[in-house]
Amino acid sequence: MLTVLFWKRSNKYGAVAGIGVGAVMVFAWKFGISKLGGVFAIYELLPAFVAALIAIIIVSLVTPAPGKEITEEFDSIKAEMNT
Prior knowledge:
Elements lengths: L1 H5 L5 H20 L13 H18 L5 H15 L1
């Protein structure tokens, strides 16, 4: 949601990738990586958020950009909020 609100280049492919990577990372961290202890014993939502954010950015950059209509809508809403 944060990338959709603040970055007009994000797209549906990036959002789906972020959801998938975040979900997998929660389970991988909780049931695998956190068992290592030490610095890896942190709450699983933090590394899942970071991994999902990276996935959204990468996938959004390698897939087609949103159409002109969507970016214009983004710009108009952003302009309304700044006034």
